[in-house]
Amino acid sequence: MAVDPHALFEEWLAEALLAEPNDPVAMALATADAAGRPSVRMVLMKGHDARGFVFYTNRLSRKGDELAANPRAALLFHWKSLRRQVRVEGPVEPVSDSEADAYFATRGRDSQLGAWASDQSQPLDARATFEARYQEVRDRFEGGEVPRPDHWSGYRVAAERIEFWNDRAHRLHERRLFTLEADGGWRTSLLYP
Ligand SMILES: Cc1cc2nc3c(=O)[nH]c(=O)nc-3n(C[C@H](O)[C@H](O)[C@H](O)COP(=O)(O)O)c2cc1C
Description:
The protein has about 190 residues and is of the alpha+beta class. It has five helices and ten strands; from the N terminus they run H-E-E-E-E-H-E-E-H-H-H-E-E-E-E. Strands 1, 2, 3, 4, 5, 6, 7, 8, 9 and 10 form a ten-stranded antiparallel sheet that branches. The longest helix has 15 residues, at about 5-20. Flavin mononucleotide binds near residues 26, 55, 61 and 121.
């Protein structure tokens, strides 16, 4: 059994990549506003290492507003085919501009244009308005590279608590919790299911 939760996460992720029919890197992202009211939505994990878990989004979205007011988040991976879940909690920091640029450059052109066209989380009067905006940015960047919009970037959830949940027979599920110590090491323990 790995004692580093990030290494264990990579082992479970590798199995999920083989087992899940779609979106094995999808995770629920929970944030809360300044008053502590929670909200949750799915995002795709686009990077993971010992520093944390990275996702990309519109910084002016509802989640972006909440993270500006309260820079902490919880993540949940649920790999249904494997009957496993991983819970992650910790403070959130923006990724560097160069990291966001590098990832943005790997996205398909349609997704890059979409990042310009979508006022994510703002009210939309009609689908046609969005389509017209998409057309407008397509024309604007015709023949050239699409730069990353300032408002589109990534966040890193710096895990300080990671829990691995494994289905076991007779509902005797297994829960292994890792918590980050002040010295940077991880403490591991079991939890009742
Ligand atoms: C499987 C899945 C993956 C998604 N991945 C992302 C993502 O990586 N980034 C993103 O901004 N929205 C993603 N979305 C859309 C979000 O769930 C959400 O609708 C959007 O980000 C607006 O959320 P907000 O209003 O709370 O900010 C995804 C949705 C699904 C169902």
